[in-house]
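Minutes, project check-in

Agenda point 3 was the complex the collaborators sent over. CS summarized: two entities, 523 residues total, and the question is how they sit relative to each other. Sequences were read into the notes so everyone works from the same version.
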Amino acid sequence: MYSPAIVAEAMVNGLMTGAAYALVALGLTLVYGVLHIVNFAHGALLTCAMFAVLGMEQGLGIGPYAAILPLGVLFFLLGYALQRYVIGPSSHGEDRNTLLVTLGISIVLENALLAAFRSDTRTLGGDMGFDVVELGPMLLSRPRLVGCAVALVVAALLWLLLARSDTGRAIRAVAKERFGAQVVGIDPRHIFAVTFGIGCACLAVAACLLLPTFYVNPRVGNAFVLVAFTIVVLGGMGSVVGALVGGLVIGVVESLGGLLLGESLGQLGIFLIFILVLLLRPTGLFGARA
Amino acid sequence: MLEVKGLHAGYGVVEVLRGIDMAVSRGEIVAVLGANGVGKTTLNKVFSGVIPAWAGEILFEGQRIDRATPDAIVAAGLIHVPEGRKIFPNMTVRENLELGSYRRGKPRRARNLEHVFSVFPRLRERSAQAAGTLSGGEQQMLAIGRGMMAEPNLLILDEPSLGLSPLLVEEMFTLIRRLNADGLPILLVEQNVVQSLEIASRAYILENGLFALSGSAAEVSGNPELRRAYLGM
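CS then shared the predicted structure for the full assembly.
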């Protein structure tokens, strides 16, 4: 058997990875919950964000943590414009159009990145990724610890925004009752775009937190989005708390799976959970029962 | 304050409203009455900017609003309490009311909330409850309360008595009269002819997208045409 210290370290490591997963899943679940569309461009947008972090560091000398705010704002605006002027108008109110449009956007983005950066895998460089913090018997990666803390703060802020602000209330109102929202003067097109923008801002923050310990290539986002879909299903489609809890659970499962079954089989547990949730509790942990 | 001239509108190729002329003045309760499917809800949707007018003019306090967006119309103070209430079922009663002042009346939100609670004490009791769990009558009160939060200059009530028990219908009409007595002009769009005519000052009878009959409430209720227009006989 493994010593308790190793298992504990694996679990904490899992929680830290899970926090980044949760951030990616938050954007996905929010967009699904409000716009009722599955955003197939989510992975490609995450990849773009990760290249943007790389560019900020190598071009402007701005480190990944300093880039959180500017990239968060930039990706909010990008997401807003994408939904307001491309996805929204091209869907003509049909969900299947949106599916194809977001899929198309992901193909365009991925290939644009491929053309610009080739398929090489890149990292931030430097030794930031090897920084460790000693916590009792455990050695923890400092950037992942920071990532975990920031991800939790972002999730809390998002929850506050949705629960307390007028914009957050409008987002929840439009999600359930579009006509009712219009008669109080909410413009659904604006709120949809804001929601999509928030989803993209989450991706930018996730990218800033991931890059110190992760690599980037033009297809890297897809791996995260596959996991994020599992988290959204586990937590409940559209639930912010579900995405956070689901992300942490999946992170721990992956980490323990890696410890027990070997690194290459670590993700087995994730998809096992995915299938079990769909079989036994299709609404997820925090999903509303329709 | 509301003036409509030669209004045409519809869906796709189907024309529903075929030339509507009407007006609402300050302090009035004006009733638009008609059976199912004559165009009442379409008329309301054109007023609130959700579907476009094909032709004609709508003037609200002197401003053209037939090309305005729904949020601009709310901002101007023309507030629609829609058929079927359309409250936000996943949010609390208080949140529903607060969203009523999303576009208009936000600076006086706390004061207006107090006012709505004093008109509907039941809503105060239920303020932390999810709106979807309210009874039909309470949901209707909430929908009206949400409209009042926007400090309406004119309130459009679309079928407020729909789905309520006879006792509650009576209560609802008493309430509408009271709101009007406080100085709020109301456009009442209803199927319930008898009770609507009791509280309205003037009425229009809508039939197949045109007004078959109009005049003071007393004239309209005394007119033998009413039976024919309303019952389609």
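Noted in discussion: The first helix of chain B runs from residue 40 to 47.
Follow-up: revisit at the next meeting once the mutant set is ready.
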